[in-house]
Amino acid sequence: MTQYIGAVDQGTTSTRFMIFDHAGKVVAVEQKEHQQIYPKPGGVEHDPLEIWIRTQEVIAGALTKASLTAKDLAAIGVTNQRETTVVWDRATGKPLYNAIVWQDTRTAEICNKLAKVGGQNRFRKKAGLPLATYFSGPKIKWILERVEGAKARARNGEILFGNIDTWLIWNLTGGVNGGVHITDVTNASRTMLMNLKTLNWDEEILSIMGVPRTMLPEIRSSSEVYENAKGVVDGVPVAGDLGDQQAALFGQTCFNVGEAKNTYGTGCFMLLNTGHKPVQSKNGLLTTLGYKIGNAKAVYALEGSIAITGALVQWLRDNLNLIERSSDVEALANGVADNGGLYFVPAFSGLYAPYWKDNARGVLVGMTRYVNKSHIARATLEATAYQTREVLDAMNKDSGVKLKALKVDGGMVHNELLMQFQSDVLGVPVIRPTVAETTALGAAYAAGLAVGFWNRVDDLRANWGKDKEWIPQMPAKKREALYRGWKKAVTKSFDWM
Description:
The protein is of the alpha+beta class. Helix content is 31%, strand content 23%. Helix 10 packs antiparallel against helix 12 and helix 12 crosses helix 13.
């Protein structure tokens, strides 16, 4: 019997391949970064061909580390940075343009024009999303309008669109030699082009956006065999596909209504399971797909998306040279007892939930001669916790469910200072699982269920284990005073552009 499941975890700054055993334990991991391309202020791009090369390299590397071959894998799942948009030539496999990353703000003008009829929430009832630069639909429109001949070629079926999951699965399953052009419901729900109820592309929105259906992938469930892979993992079923945040929800086994997780990565994303019916937000959250396993009913979620969290630590490292490694930020922040009155609002790409202000920009406020680089480091970490509190407040209002504890995952959960402050600011326990990288684990679970490696969703709960729990220690009066300061600081970032 095959012992293992593989997962491609293609993120904003790097790609990795993780191999898991039946207990959900990590057997091997290989990871490589890819270039971040900034063509102008607000612009963020990736090279899709570089990402595909890195994907093949990390798959081969992880198999070598574990002394395994493709025959040892029962299936492969894919999870990905969502909304990042690729358009490529069906015949050659070459992208028409660099991938436009989810953080990119170049489509602000397109979104503003679309909002002139029906406002920012024009498509929210159908798609669950406000008009914002975050999502794929306006990015496709931008490429079709700016790349010469793209519109006509799209209508003729010569070019294809996909978020990164679609791009990778197409290439994994053969590319120009018969690769399957598919996506799953979770990634489709991030395009602003899918109808939440029908789980299919919405013809009215496609017409308004000017996106031909011929270039769009087929929408499938998150867990089924799409096709067998070719190349580096020849013959292995590609059988799972989830956007990264939904994969983390699944990997955290948040299968019951009211269960939530928060992932701390480049950005920060909190998802709350709302069951089999979409819940429309009145407080700035997104209505999205949580997951769909085979022929079972789709599960929906409310999501609070924060654009910049871990990326802010990278900015301290790469742009300001305050630290040599991202992990150094905790020691630097621990050099002071508090933030010294300093707040850092990282609206580098505008503000996401619950504000959705594309024209906001980052601000440091409360500076005095007393402030030093340790205060800046501390304010950087605290910004993540405050933004999470704002999202949680909105979720409580929308769902009517008061969260009792928060499951956390992602790279930043190993920062003890941040996790304790997060618990203090929320006033609830924060729990880190044994396997903190639950994004890849969720994709592995979806693929494993599709091929019978695991039998039932409920069986996966047995694999979840608690690694550490942080309990609130801050007095309520101090918590609310600090939070009022944050709310005031956020207003200083509004309407900058």
